[in-house]
């Protein structure tokens, strides 16, 4: 891939740089919102499923210097970018990229069980809406190579008992998410609605689940992205600048 097809972007006021395909799949604010809600304990082993260009792995490794991350990405072009981004940000010793289908995740190549699993999965089921003609974008947005049941099955297999799972998902598909997780013994424990503005319905939800946890879920205050005049709220602005308290 020639250089003109790659953009060099940054977040956290330039402290993290991210190379992305100009015309391929590009990370959105959803990934940043999710990563900034995760609070892994020092020394945690984190699994990032569907890592894309590695944005969530980069954020977690940057914000939590004592954690290690295994980033799994099925698309070779995106996995290559994740490796480049890890090295360019000086995080290659703590962010390892594996190129494979999560449904056949090779246990021998990962060090588990994991303390934390993070995933920003494809949101759209097959048959809902037009599939993007760009293959990279299509796989990232539609459930072509994985769905929420696959994520739950991996979580049951590789997350330790008492370990935590964090996902961001469309609010309208919350029932699918809760059912899939509970079937695999992943108990929903925390839910935060994500709203574009304070008066709008939740567009997304951020879910935290515990493998083998007891029933009982806390619903937190909405995470509001924009103020009435279209600016980022203080909380989101802090996330994007890397100053959000984790």
Describe this structure as you would to a colleague.
Strands 3, 4, 5, 6, 7, 8, 9, 10 and 11 form a nine-stranded mixed sheet that branches. Strands 1-2 form a two-stranded antiparallel sheet. The model is unreliable at 131-144 (pLDDT under 50). The protein has a single domain, classed as 3-Layer(aba) Sandwich (Rossmann fold). The protein has helices spanning 29-35, 55-63, 76-88, 135-141, 148-158, 174-183, 234-241; strands at residues 6-11, 16-21, 45-49, 68-73, 95-99, 114-119, 159-170, 186-195, 202-211, 218-219, 223-224. It has 246 residues and is of the alpha/beta class. The N and C termini lie far apart (37 Å). Helix 1 packs parallel to helix 2 and helix 5 runs parallel beside helix 6. The protein has seven helices and eleven strands.
Task: Briefly say what this structure is.
With 246 residues, the chain is α/β, with parallel strands linked by helices.
Mean pLDDT: 88
Low-confidence stretches: 131-144
At the fourth level of CATH, the homologous superfamily is Vaccinia Virus protein VP39
Structural class: alpha/beta
What sort of overall outline do the alpha carbons produce when their principal axes are compared? globular
Secondary-structure element string: EEHEHEHEEHHEHEEEEH
Rg value: 17 Å
Percent strand equals 25-35%
Distance between the termini: 37 Å
């Amino acid at each position: 891939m020639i250089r003109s097809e790659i953009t060099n972007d940054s977040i956290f006021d330039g402290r993290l740089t991210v190379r992305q395909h100009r015309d391929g799949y590009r990370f959105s604010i959803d990934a940043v919102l999710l990563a900034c809600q995760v609070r892994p304990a020092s020394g945690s082993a984190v699994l990032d499923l569907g890592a894309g260009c590695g944005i969530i792995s980069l954020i977690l490794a940057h914000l939590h210097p004592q954690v290690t991350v295994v980033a799994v990405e099925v698309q070779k072009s995106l996995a290559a970018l994740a490796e480049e981004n890890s090295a360019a940000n000086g995080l290659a010793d703590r962010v390892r990229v594996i190129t494979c289908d999560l449904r056949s995740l090779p246990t021998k190549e990962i060090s588990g069980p994991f303390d934390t699993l993070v995933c920003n999965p494809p949101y759209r089921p097959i048959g809902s809406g037009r599939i993007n003609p760009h293959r990279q974008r299509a796989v990232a947005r539609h459930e072509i190579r994985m769905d929420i049941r696959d994520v739950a099955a991996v979580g049951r297999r590789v997350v330790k008992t008492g370990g935590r799972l964090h996902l961001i998902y469309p609010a309208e598909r919350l029932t699918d998410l809760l059912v899939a997780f509970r079937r695999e013994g992943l108990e929903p424990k925390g839910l935060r609605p994500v709203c574009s503005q304070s008066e709008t319905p939740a567009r997304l939800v951020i879910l935290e689940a515990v493998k083998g946890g007891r029933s009982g879920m806390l619903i937190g205050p909405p995470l509001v992205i924009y103020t009435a005049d279209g600016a980022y709220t203080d909380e989101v602005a802090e996330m994007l600048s890397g100053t959000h308290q984790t």
